[in-house]
Amino acid sequence: AEARRRAEETLDRVGLGHRKKHRPNELSGGEQQRVTIARALAGGPSIVWADEPTGNLDTETAGSIMELLQELNNEGLTLVLVTHDPAIGSTAGKLIRMRDGAIESATDRPEE
Fold first, then answer.
1. Domain chopping of the chain, boundaries
2. CB–CB of 17/8 below 8 Å?
């Protein structure tokens, strides 16, 4: 019962509570990506590794997902995000740039 409650709450947080009865082949690529994010968050992890978490999402939904991830980060969740999107990178507390498989630079961002 607790696991179901957490799953439904997490689906609501990613904007998919209304689609919980749908099968994966009935969801768009962006909806499937949000389900993946919800699954990663539902267990209450202390760290989440995400490779292009907003890559298949429209701008508005991507913004909502990033707001959710920022909110969770502020609550103590550690996020490790891989992105090619400078706007997402600009929200990071630490930015590590890689080129050709090697770390090029690492920059700490001041807390606001």
1. 2-108
2. yes
Asked if residue 78 lies in contact with residue 85, where contact means CB atoms within 8 angstroms, the answer is no
Q: Which amino acid is at 29?
A: G
Which residues are registered as beta bridge partners of 41? none
Residue 93, pLDDT > 70, answer: yes
Cβ atoms of 11 and 37 within 8 Å: the answer is: no
Does residue 52 contact residue 84 with C-beta atoms inside 8 Å? yes
Task: Convert the pLDDT of each residue in 29-59 to its tens digit.
Answer: 888 988 988 999 888 899 999 999 888 888 8
Q: 2-108 has which CATH code? A: 3.40.50.300
